[in-house]
Each structure stands twice: as C-alpha cells, then as structure tokens.
Amino acid sequence: METVEAAGTVGTAVLNLLLPHHRTADDRAAPTDAFPHQLRQIGAFVRRNEPIVLTLPGFPCKSPNPAKVLGHLPDQGERLSLAFLNSLCARIGEIHAPGARVVICSDGHVFGDLIRVPDEHIDAYSDELSRLIDELGLDHLSVFDLRDVLGDLPHSAKRAYVHDRYAPGLDELRAEVRADGHTLALYRGITRFLLDDTADFAGTRSALQRECRRRAYGVIQRSRAWGELIAEHHPGSVRLSIHPQAVGAPKFGIRLLDAPDVWTTPWHSAALHRPDGTWSLLPRARAERLGRLVHHDGRPSHFE
C-alpha cells in the first residue's frame, strides 16, 4: 500500500503522460492540479497498488457515410489508435509497476437506431476490434459492450433497457442544453455529425436538420445512460472520452491521432500516411485526393 504522498507523486507522473493527448477545446495549457478528478481516481489505484483502469466509451462502428470512411469494419485508423492506447498503458507501467489497462466500451448498439447503422455492422465492427487486439498482441486493452451486460437479448430490447434505466429525461436535457455552454457545444457537435453522416436522406435539408436535432438529444441521453452503466460495471475507473472535455471536467478527453479538428475520430474518417511519416485522420473524400488507397488483408486500409 503506497502512502498518500507517494501515490500523489505517481499519480501526477501518470497524468503528465496523458496531458499531451488531452482532447479539449481550451487553448490554454493546464497544470496537473487542474485535474482533481483524474488525480483522485489514479491515486486510488496507486495507493492500492493495483493496475489503473481507464474506461473509454467509443469505437462504436463506422460512419454510414461512404464519403467519410472506407467501409464498415475497422481499418488503419483503428489499428493505430488501439496501438497508441496500448503503448500509453505500457508507459504508465514504467511509472506504476502494476501497470494500466484501457477498457474500450464499444457503444455502437447503444446508438444504432439513432445513427442509422445496422446492428449486424456494429457486431462485425466490435468483433473485429477484439480480433485486432488479439492479433496485434495489445495486452493492455479489452472490449466491453452490451453483450457483456445483457447477453443475447434482441438489440432493441438492450437499447430500451439502457435508456429506461439510466437515461436522463428529455425535458431535463433540453433545459441543460439551454443553460450549459458545454452541453450546448456537445449537442451542436453531435447534430453536425448526424448531418454529415447522412448520405441518402430523401427530404429537404431543413427537414434533415430537424430530424438530426431530435436524434442528437437521443444520442446524448443514451451516452449519459451508457456512462452510468459503465460506472456501475467499472467503479472507480478513470473515465476517458473521445469528445473534447474542459480542463478539470470529470471526464478526460483524449486525442487518439492527429486530426484537423477536435471532433474527428477513426470511425468517422480514413487514415492518411503523410510523406513525412506522420498519420492524420481525414474524411475519405479528402484523403483520397492526397494519396493512393492501400489494402491490408484484402480490405481497404488507408491512404498514402
């Protein structure tokens, strides 16, 4: 059992490994003491001399818009992101001997009906994530999804269970969007993603905007619900987020790869290998103008 002082020193060192990858809309750099939630959570694991558990909701499925992605299965963007997370855990292990592990809380089925992605595509994506983790020997990573909680129930029943048990009320959420700047930014960001992900809407642009605004509330409700379920199954874990988070927020936003904005993720983009050896995430339509398509294991993988 570490002393409180020693745990604080190790916790600060661990947080310093995370800070260069902080996904935030804030321009200012922040010291470690501006992140009390993360210091407390990390410190608790260190004091108990246990592996630090980080939970990351994300890696749901590929965008349904073919102008953004190469297909419905993980590709080089996911491979690079998984490898990054695993290497981050390995570096933490150099500071904290019990090490660290990231639980990827794959949330595609939570939102499938709202983001218009077939459940069979979501299953295939999640299964391929697990296969990649095994194939690449990423021993610090694991995948957690609704199948771990609710087994073989129909997907619609799983979604209903999560929503009914954990989601905030719609009126409550609408009031929060009106009153809280961060929630408003999240709502607008998700609305934009839903608009961008829609490739075959038959109605008018204004009708699509109204529908996406409605669905955005549902996505936030389900996201909150999924977060509550994760906390129930992984109590005390350090909560990571693929969305931008303010300095000092309970969730720590983490950037997986270089991208043109703080919202881009591997599942909404394609990976581009630049001539200088670096990687970036871009919409497929843009990436294919900058490089040639490369295949891996017989499937489209990335551009270079």
What's the gist of this structure?
This protein has helices spanning 4-18, 36-47, 76-95, 108-115, 119-135, 146-150, 155-166, 170-179, 181-197, 205-233, 284-290; strands at residues 52-58, 100-106, 141-144, 238-241, 252-253, 270-273, 279-282, 293-296, 299-303. It has 304 residues and is an alpha/beta fold.
Structure description:
InterPro entries: Isocyanide_synthase_DIT1 (IPR007817), PvcA (IPR017133). This protein is 50% helix and 13% strand. Strand 1 (52-58), helix 3 (76-95) and strand 2 form a beta-alpha-beta unit. The protein has eleven helices and nine strands. Helix 8 crosses helix 9. The chain has one domain. It is of the alpha/beta class and 304 residues long.
Topology:
Layout: H1 4-18, H2 36-47, E1 52-58, H3 76-95, E2 100-106, H4 108-115, H5 119-135, E3 141-144, H6 146-150, H7 155-166, H8 170-179, H9 181-197, H10 205-233, E4 238-241, E5 252-253, E6 270-273, E7 279-282, H11 284-290, E8 293-296, E9 299-303
Parallel strand pairs: 1-2, 1-4, 2-3, 4-5
Antiparallel strand pairs: 6-7, 8-9
Helix pairs in contact: 1-2, 1-3, 4-5, 4-7, 4-10, 7-10, 8-9, 9-10
Organism: Streptomyces tirandamycinicus
Protein name: Pyoverdine biosynthesis protein PvcA
InterPro entries: Isocyanide_synthase_DIT1, PvcA
